[in-house]
Write the structure tokens for this entry.
Amino acid sequence: MKIAVIGLGLIGGSICKALKLSTSHTVLGFDTNADTLIKAKDQVAIDGAIDLADLKEADLVFVCLHPEATIDFVTSHIKKFKKGSIICDVSGVKSRPVAILDQLLRDEGINYLGTHPMAGREFSGFDFSDAGIFNGASFIITPTELTSLETLDTVRNLANQMGFGKIVLTTADQHDKNIAFTSQLAHLVSNAYVKSPSLKNEQGFSAGSFQDLTRVARLNEDLWTSLFIMNKESLLFELNGILNNLNDYKRALENEDVETMKKLLAEGRKLKEEADCL
Amino acid sequence: MKIAVIGLGLIGGSICKALKLSTSHTVLGFDTNADTLIKAKDQVAIDGAIDLADLKEADLVFVCLHPEATIDFVTSHIKKFKKGSIICDVSGVKSRPVAILDQLLRDEGINYLGTHPMAGREFSGFDFSDAGIFNGASFIITPTELTSLETLDTVRNLANQMGFGKIVLTTADQHDKNIAFTSQLAHLVSNAYVKSPSLKNEQGFSAGSFQDLTRVARLNEDLWTSLFIMNKESLLFELNGILNNLNDYKRALENEDVETMKKLLAEGRKLKEEADCL
């Protein structure tokens, strides 16, 4: 199979590397940065570059651009894809790409499947791409009633070969609700955390908890703004939730209410213990 | 030197083990739980148990109880300590123990030094104690004008021998301000984070960011309630700070204000990058 990967950033580059490492498919890359393409070829992350005029050669296309750019790319090049081929996006939000692309591509006789390889790092770009980031990670797939079983099987097999530890099937809406909590809120809180004037005195006073809370503060603001705004309702729900919870602790602290504070902390501890046991 | 360790929990137990591992001092343990004492003796974490009536034998005493219990212990047994000996507490807040114990012990001809071994785990008790948790960690010391150089040197040497990576000298007040940000707020936010109804759907959707944000949600509510209430003002300052910051993101999200969201996220990213470079 000929697989085209559009956008050789952290995820696109890692997909190329994982495919070359673990499959015998031909991997063709597209990137607007010529140096990145040369680097990818040199590192045998791709077999070669692909011109957009030649997209018809590809049996499967992974579009690995930021969410808005992904939708733009697919809609503006829709006539260039091969009939019967499979187009996958890898956006961290799924409702909007699925709502726009699923029917549009079906009408052109092209298969679409929304995916979210749940891997990332606090650094962006091809230079940080690595086949290993998928090892054991979740590969989330959001099929619809338009998705053929063959498409599903093809993509699922690729994900297994690329080393993902778990293939999770869900709806785009459920994906976005879940991800607002498990990933988007984490990035938002971490990014907010470092904005204390006390940050300048952190040296020598920070142990594991500080490092853990602030690791993902280092994010790509263009990508994450796009992800947050596209998932506004679900993220606001989670954000309001943690604001309410933090205000409960605040009141207990202001009132020096030992029993309430213990109760609030015990609730969180128990929920975490239960979640860890699942 | 004969060193007594009062309270063989996670920190007390680890201090015993680190002292036995790296020094030739005699280590004597006290714990209200007889089984813990037997276990500590069996594991050669202590040379033996010490009765409170024999506290006069100890040249140095580490009091490793919860903060309130530490103050209670020292004040109620103050006549039992050896004149000229050194008493160290290991509480995670320092202003209150220092304010109460420093002058009190000096009046009895006893040296006091507040310390905070900045190591911990999300589990409590002797069973989780381990000399290794101090490796590379900060050992914070809060001397006052009453602290003799000899006391400072003795404790500093012990910390070095126990494997701490950094000895940090500061005032009790500055310690409490810094620790509110680098540790207490982290535990509070992490504990609040898990309280979303979405927690039940976390499986398959959580990657590193979720695990990092929620690791320390698993805390000992009795200990942390005591630490939080004792450091009320500084913790409230940090809590109000993150609440304000999160509300900035909330407004940007509600207004779908892309430019403001990017600006807010870039601010956090840059602060984190700068902090990581220090």
Observations:
- The mean pLDDT of chain B is 96.
- Chain B has two domains: 2-170, 175-277.
- Chain B touches chain A through 89 residues (CB under 8 Å).
